[in-house]
Design goal:
This protein is an all-beta fold. Helices cover 2% and strands 23% of the residues. The C terminus is likely disordered.
C-alpha cells in the first residue's frame, strides 16, 4: 500500500479505537520520498525481531532535508535511535518508549526546534552538539538515565524556552549563563541529587513561569531576585540543601527578632484579608498581615479565593502579571521554626 503513495507528504496514523497499529515499521517506509510529516503516536509499534534499531533505514533515504515532523510517542519501541542523517528535522517526539543509548540527534540537525524524549532509558551524557543547535526551543528529557554535567554552552541557546531534565543522574553545578535567558518559560532539574552549588543570578529570567529544583543538592538561600520575576507561577525547592541561614544558631538569632526574618520579604504578598461570616452571610473580621512563615506548611498555592469569601489585595511584585503563585519550600529551609497555615493560603492538593 505504501508503494502506491509515492507523493505522500503527510501520513497520520495516530491511535484510535479501531486502527491501533502493532509490529515494526515496514521497510517500505523508506520509499516515501516526499514524506514531510509522520505521526504514529499511541500505537503499539515495536522493534523488528533480532534488531536493536527500529527506525534504521525507514526515513530520509532519498532526501536528508525533506522530513520535518517525526512523532512516535507512546509506542513499544526498544533499542537505539539515530536521526542525525535527517537534517531537515524540526520536530522529533519519541516520548514514552524504551529507547536507550545515545540521544537521537546530532550537530547536523541544525533546524531542530523540539526534541521530546521523556520516559525512555537514554543512558548517556548530553552531547555538546545539542547546545549548538540554534533553533532549539524545547528539550524534554525527563525520566531517563542521563549522566554527566550540564554544559556551559546550554546557556547560549537563545531560543530555548522549555528545558525538562528532571529525574536523571546529572551532576555538577548549574551553569551561570542558563539563568540569563530571558526567553525561558520552564526550567526543571528536579530529582538530580548530584546537582550541587548555588542557584545562579535569576534576575534576567523575566519570562520564567516554572522553576523546579526539588530533590537536588543545591545550597544557598532563596534569592531576592525571584520576587521581581513578573510571570513566575511555580517554584519548588523542597528536599534541597537550600537554607535561610548558615546554621541553626543563626536561624535562632534571626527568629528572635521575628519569625518573618527567615524568608525573603517578597513572600509576604497580601496586605490584608477579610474573613467571610457564613452564618450572617456578611463580611467578618479582618485577619492580621499574612506572614512569610505561612509558606512553611508544605506546598501551598497563593491565590485570591472567590470574592464572596475573601478580599485579597494584589501581590506587590514588580509586575502584577501573575494572579497566583505556588511555592514548595519545605520546613527545613528555616530549620523547622514554624509550620502553620493561616486562611491566607489554600493548601495545594494537586
Amino acid at each position: 500500500l505504501l508503494l502506491l503513495l509515492p507523493l505522500l507528504d503527510l501520513l497520520l496514523l495516530e491511535w484510535n479505537l479501531h486502527t491501533g497499529l502493532t509490529g515494526p515499521l515496514p521497510e517500505e517506509m523508506s520509499e516515501l520520498a516526499t514524506l514531510e510529516h509522520f505521526y504514529a503516536s499511541f500505537n503499539s509499534l515495536s522493534t523488528p525481531p533480532g534488531s536493536t534499531q527500529p527506525l534504521a533505514g525507514r526515513f530520509c533515504k532519498y532526501s536528508t532535508t525533506r522530513l520535518y515532523s517525526l512523532i512516535l510517542r507512546a509506542n513499544s519501541f526498544t533499542g537505539t535511535v539515530n536521526m542525525s542523517h535527517c537534517e531537515g528535522l524540526g520536530l522529533l517526539d519519541v516520548q514514552d518508549n524504551r529507547f536507550y543509548g545515545h540521544l537521537p540527534i546530532g550537530i547536523t540537525n541544525q533546524g531542530l526546534i523540539s526534541l521530546r524524549a521523556t520516559n525512555n532509558m537514554f543512558n548517556t551524557s548530553i552531547p555538546e552538539a545539542l547546545w549548538r543547535l540554534p533553533q532549539l526551543a524545547t528539550l524534554e528529557m525527563a525520566n531517563n538515565a542521563l549522566t554527566g554535567t550540564l554544559s556551559p554552552f546550554m546557556g547560549t541557546v537563545n531560543n530555548l524556552v522549555n528545558l525538562r531534565l528532571g529525574n536523571n543522574s546529572l551532576r555538577g553545578t548549574i551553569p551561570g549563563n542558563v539563568t540569563t535567558n530571558s526567553q525561558m518559560l520552564l526550567l526543571e532539574l528536579y530529582d538530580n541529587p548530584l546537582l550541587h552549588g548555588t542557584l545562579p543570578d535569576v534576575s534576567k529570567m523575566v519570562g520564567i513561569r516554572t522553576l523546579d529544583l526539588r530533590n537536588t543538592s543545591l545550597s544557598g538561600s532563596i534569592p531576592e531576585a525571584l520576587g521581581t520575576l513578573p510571570y513566575l507561577e511555580r517554584v519548588d525547592i523542597s528536599m534541597t540543601q537550600m537554607r535561610c541561614c548558615r546554621n541553626q544558631s543563626q536561624a535562632d538569632a534571626l527568629a528572635a527578632h521575628g519569625i518573618h526574618r527567615l524568608l525573603p520579604t517578597f513572600l509576604r504578598f497580601n496586605n490584608r484579608l477579610q474573613l467571610f461570616d457564613t452564618v450572617r452571610n456578611t463580611a467578618g473580621s479582618e485577619v492580621d498581615l499574612d506572614r512569610s512563615t505561612d509558606l512553611l506548611c508544605g506546598s501551598v498555592e497563593r491565590r485570591p479565593l472567590p470574592e464572596a469569601a475573601w478580599n485579597v489585595l494584589q501581590l506587590p511584585v514588580t509586575n502584577n502579571a501573575v494572579t497566583n503563585q505556588r511555592w514548595t519550600i519545605g520546613p527545613m529551609y528555616s530549620y523547622y521554626k514554624n509550620c502553620t497555615c493561616t486562611p491566607a493560603f489554600v493548601p495545594d492538593t494537586s
